[in-house]
Amino acid sequence: xxxxxxxxxSVAQAHIMNRLRDRTGSQWASSARDRVRRTLxxxxxxxxxxxxxxxxxxxxxxxxxxxxxxxxxxxxxGAHIGSLTSLNIPRTDEMLQLANTxxxxxxRDRATKPSSITVHADHTDFDExxxxxxxxxxxxLLDLVENYLxxxxxxxxxxxxxxIANGIxxxxxxxxxxxxxxxxxxxxxxxxDVDNDDGPFEYIARQHSETARRSLRxxxxxxxxxxxxxxxxxxxxxxxxxxxxxxxxxxxxNILHRGKIPKNRERVAIFYTYYSAKPMHERYLQPxxxxxxxxxIADGLNERQRACAFWRN
Length: 313
Prior knowledge:
Blueprint: H1 11-21, H2 27-56, H3 65-77, E1 79-83, H4 92-102, E2 118-120, H5 131-134, H6 139-149, E3 153-163, E4 184-190, E5 201-204, H7 206-216, H8 225-229, E6 237-240, E7 246-250, E8 257-259, E9 268-276, H9 291-297, H10 303-309
Antiparallel strand pairs: 1-7, 2-3, 3-9, 4-7, 4-9, 5-6, 5-8
Helix pairs in contact: 1-2, 3-6
């Protein structure tokens, strides 16, 4: 019986994969391996995901009309932009205050190398302020995420980063889609005002992303602007600008997206990330928080929250 994570390779498939794996020094080989994986495995993995979603549908939690509008927008466009206060999530003000206390730590000397494009809050920074992590496990948010994913949720956790205004074009500043799962949801919260020259999150709507991926035979590469313009004109690129406390919901697995290079202010943002509790490509997912941190907060979680946080177990 096939499962989403355990599909046996035929002898021929294994032979192809082993030959490609032997060429790890080649960028071509890496791209080719991803393309082979997608060709051989993804149809079965997607069908398994869809079966799980059908089986889970009767158990989806009820959500408000406002939350349903967000789910529908992400379903239709791939993203939704709004105001954090309109979500009415408990303890949001406290969460933002704690996040702001970490901002002075996000200085450039935290960059791991000269070519770094962001500086991040370390997981140890959250030991003192676990509410920052716990906010993403609020039941109202999990209800929304579960309705969008259609299956039980795996919670990756929180990231806070500052996008450095250093002019470097590379990595997540290039167009890409996240490979971890059939569907994902990121909740992005701006901690400062973000205009078009401040490194906003930018995306291409679902329909046009699908067209671009087919045209480019996309397989987990990073795409430069000149290539993207050849398949999607720049007037269809959507920069998410807005004041502090703007919130963005985005399925970053199904839309091509990037963080624009900041030229004026440096964008500071919180990222909460969710995928299914059985992600399609778990090999891409490194634990964001050590088990000791999760154990330290477990007693305050209800059964579903604990399942989301400890999905690996």
